[in-house]
Amino acid sequence: MNALDLVDSIGWTLIHFSWQGALVGGQTALALALLRKARPETRYLVACSGLLLCLAWPATELFIRLTGDSGANGGFAIVLAGTASGVVQDSGWSGLFQRNLAWIVGAWGLCALFLALRMIAGLLWLRHAATHEAHDPAWQARVDRLATQFGLARPIRLRIVDRLASPVTAGWWRPVVLVPASLVTSMPPHLLEALLAHELAHIQRHDYLVNLLQNVIESLLFYHPAVWWISRRIRVEREQIADSIAARQLGEPRRLALALSELEKLQFSTHHLAQAANGGDLMSRIKQLVRPDTEALNWKAAIPVLGFALAGLAGCAQTPASSPVMAKADSIVNIPVAQFNSCERPKYPAEALARDIQGTVTLGFLVSAEGKVQGTTLRKSSGDTSLDEAARTALAKCTFTPGTVDGKPTEQWTEVQYVWVSK
Question: Across the strands, what pairs with 322?
Fold first, then answer.
């Protein structure tokens, strides 16, 4: 495995996820629409499964791409040029993607790195707040009492933070609840206690770990709207579950509803790396607490289903595997021909030669309309990376008479074999 193969594998995996993610999103949206009358825990499980599938599908495809090419045993090179028929490079989306895979992977890597750094910065901020912000003994005693009521044996720290507008919870092993100083001074104690009960419900369910995994998936697959939509549905259902647990422990659903109503009046920002009482749609959560009736059918629920289904079908049609499209049946196709005087004699890797390693390397390569090698892909390995790389290096230096379609020079994929024998 070399850098070019790695870029090719990552690039096509990212591209294929455009339709794979749409299909997963459509199926998840359909399941959630059918389960609109089910318990929030059931919808939460369905949404989490959809998000995990968004990660598992491309991860599996990438693993297959990276490990799928294996060969027999693998030296001195004999080039059998043109051992396979040439194929015309797709001039549509597939060809465009193939020519720009390096840029696609590079842009994805930079964006994913930025999001990862932002996530790390958020974790560091939470850690700093948990260790350096002020604590209030009176409210700490309230939290300890609530923790006992929730059956939580781990100590839960309470910190008062100035520049924060909604309580948030962070940490799993040593959880901490961050409370805005403005709420401590302005909100009635019994309402703030209801919000704290909501935070303890998150701690009881270990929601911080799930939320952290969500952030990782969002950072890796940030470019797909289905990932963000599913992730948002997870947060919505999770907040309803925490509301239900808190209301049950308090024995007063309306008190929590009133606390959320007071919270809605404040201006706040969402902290994605922590569980916050302001997550989801506050008004819908208030209505669910006051009138916990079944959700009515809403025609808007069909929009994500139809949207993701159409995107998935379009992706399947426009993003085939990296194999190119054949020319029309009545076209006259001439494959690229190597100008052998331009090709350097491949150099047998010294270590492979000393170990008497032999084998055949099959390379697919794209020849431009100007006769230059634009890209290569390993179709079949010799079983030795040094032989594969030596063949690829030698091929990249060749010049070709470009292939033609009906007499017009055209980008084409073709195939070549390097047979390495040591004697």
Answer: none
Give the separation between CA 184 and CA 189, rounded to whole angstroms: 8
Spatial neighbors of 105 by CB under 8 A, at least 6 apart, are: 7, 10, 11, 14
CB 128 within 8 A of CB 103: no
Q: What is the pLDDT along the chain (423 residues), one digit of tens a residue?
A: 567 678 888 988 999 899 899 999 999 999 998 998 888 999 999 999 999 999 999 999 898 888 754 333 333 444 443 333 334 444 456 667 777 788 999 999 999 999 999 999 988 988 888 887 778 888 899 899 999 988 988 889 999 888 776 788 888 888 999 888 888 888 888 888 889 999 999 999 999 999 999 999 999 999 999 999 999 999 999 999 998 898 888 887 888 888 888 777 764 444 445 555 555 566 666 666 666 654 555 555 556 656 655 655 555 544 444 444 445 555 666 777 776 667 777 788 888 888 888 888 888 888 888 888 887 888 888 888 888 888 888 888 888 888 787 778 888 888 788 887 765
Q: Where are the domains of the chain?
A: 1-68+100-323, 76-91+327-421
395 CB burial (10 A radius; 0-12, 13-18, 19+)? buried
**Pairwise CA distance, residues 308 & 50, whole Å:** 13
Tell me which CATH homologous superfamily contains domain 76-91+327-421: TonB (3.30.2420.10)
**Cβ-based burial of 108 (10 A; exposed 0-12, middle 13-18, buried ≥19):** middle
- The whole-model pTM stands at 0.65
